[in-house]
Amino acid sequence: MSYRACISGAAEYHLAQHHEVRHHIAVQRSKNTPNKNEMAVWLRSGLRIATHMTDTFASQTQSPYRPIRQWRRSKRLHKLLYNHLGLPLHTSEAAIRTLKFALNPAQVRLRERLAVDLPATEQDAELEREGYLQLAPDQFSMLPQALASCSRAFEVSVRSGAVHDAQAEGPKEFLVSIIRDEEAYQHNGLMELAVSSPVLRLASKYLGSVPMLSGIRLWWSPPNTSEIDSQLYHCDREDQRQLKVLLNISDTTHKTGPFTLIPAGISERVKSEVGYSYKRYRLTDEEVWSTEDQTQAVPLTGPSGSAYCVDTSRCLHFGSRQNSEPRLLLMVQYTRYLAPNVTLPSWLPDRSAAPMELDELQRLALGLTAA
Ligand SMILES: O=C(O)CCC(=O)C(=O)O
């Protein structure tokens, strides 16, 4: 266990506190005599930093795993190269992939080798062709437990007022995160689904290497009348391909603003016809359907428990649009290790998480290695 890992885990938190402490030092310097309140604020800030560092340290020492060494700044570099310096998208992405590869070639080769060794199934070809796939419950046996867990978590969040707070605080009123990333450890069956063998097999085969689990969200979409942001057609920008597992927790109909996609081949044609780029990110329905037949859109409707996987980088999609009834959806996201435009959460289980025995594929997906 390295102290450096502990310090870097605490660094982000420390930065947030930094301004508060600096402000009080400045006040103190200007007066030269701290009053009792200022002293108390300093002490509280110091205590919070120390507590956070101790917690980070303790969770790492108690975990049988530690995070793999990887570069976490690629999204920033992509922003600089593509958005600010105006490099073509493919050039910026290639530069970042090369850099990531150079930093850990063994990791890339291992992931690719393991993906090749996994058995192929007929579904793989369908997913490659269409860019999406319905997941049959008999092959993905972890779905019912994840479903029950999400329903329970939502009920608890409604009762405690957490849903209301998340809606008020979150960036999107129409798409509210109830469970986010490592919080999934607190809910039985969510991490088990995210790193289950059939899901990791499917994602590894599709992406050509064992992927990183790059996000988990339980999304609640309340009734709304808007048509903005992710309620408009777009493709996700983390990489040229990725995979999301979508599990309908509530019964999902046209009234609940279903996740709606355009299959990969048609999306490709639409994108080239309208000159789609990440700088022209959202498309109106009129733009999308100017040359294609609108009936080719696929709403991922279905009863509670119905599940799909979708490449949201290749398939144009939107969701939570103008629903008259609420929708609850679990989303689990996988990206390639070399994805240029992604910020990965830390999946190091903390002390309160149920211990999980992880095999090699699961450790790779979580970006962990034996301690
Ligand atoms: O279902 C939704 O609300 C849209 C989600 C979305 O745009 C995405 O997962 O990329």
What descriptors fit this protein?
single chain; 371 residues; Jelly Rolls; 2 domains; 6-stranded antiparallel β-sheet; disordered N terminus; binds 2-oxoglutaric acid
Give an account of the 3D structure.
With 371 residues, this protein is α+β, with helices and mostly antiparallel strands. It folds into two domains: 3-62; 74-370, q2cbj1_9rhob like domain (Jelly Rolls, Sandwich), CATH 2.60.120.620. It is 45% helix and 13% strand. It has helices at 3-31, 36-62, 74-84, 89-103, 105-117, 122-130, 143-160, 162-169, 190-194, 197-207, 264-274, 285-288, 360-366, and strands at 65-67, 132-135, 176-180, 212-221, 243-248, 260-261, 298-299, 307-310, 317-318, 327-335, 368-370. Strands 2-8-5-10-4-3 form a six-stranded antiparallel β-sheet. Helix 1 (3-31) runs antiparallel to helix 2 (36-62) and helix 3 runs antiparallel to helix 4. It binds 2-oxoglutaric acid. 2-oxoglutaric acid binds next to loops. Residues 175, 221, 230, 236, 244, 259, 312, 317, 319-320, 331 line the site of 2-oxoglutaric acid.
